[in-house]
Amino acid sequence: MDNHREYVLETNRALGDNVKRAARHLERGGLLVDLLPHKTTMLIRRPLSMSGSVFKRLLASAIQPHAGSLLLFSKYSGRCWICSNRGNQPGIFVEY
Length: 96
What we know:
The protein is an alpha+beta fold. It has a single domain, classed as Alpha-Beta Plaits (2-Layer Sandwich), CATH 3.30.70. Helix content is about 20%, strand content about 35%. A 6-stranded antiparallel beta sheet has the order 2-3-1-4-5-6, with helices on one face. A hairpin with a 7-residue loop joins strand 5 and strand 6 (about 90-95). The radius of gyration is 12 Å and the shape is globular. The model has no long low-confidence stretch (mean pLDDT about 90).
C-alpha cells in the first residue's frame, strides 16, 4: 500500500513569483514535489503521516500573502479546493 497521497497543484502568484522557489519551500516542509511541463503546475505527494491541517497551512504559505491563490486537485478522491489570499478570508480552502 502506498504511503503517500498525490495532488496536482496549480499556483497563481507563488512565492516571489517563482514556482521553483515555491517547490523548494514545499520540499523543505516534507512534501515530494515534481514540476510539471505546464509552468505553474506541480505534482505533490503528501505522506499519510502529515495531517491535513499541516498540509493546507504549508500549501497556503507557498503563495504570496496578499495576492496569491492556488487550485488543489486530489488524484485519490477527485475533490478540488481553491485557496485565495485575496478578499476577507485569506488562506481558507474552499471545496468545489
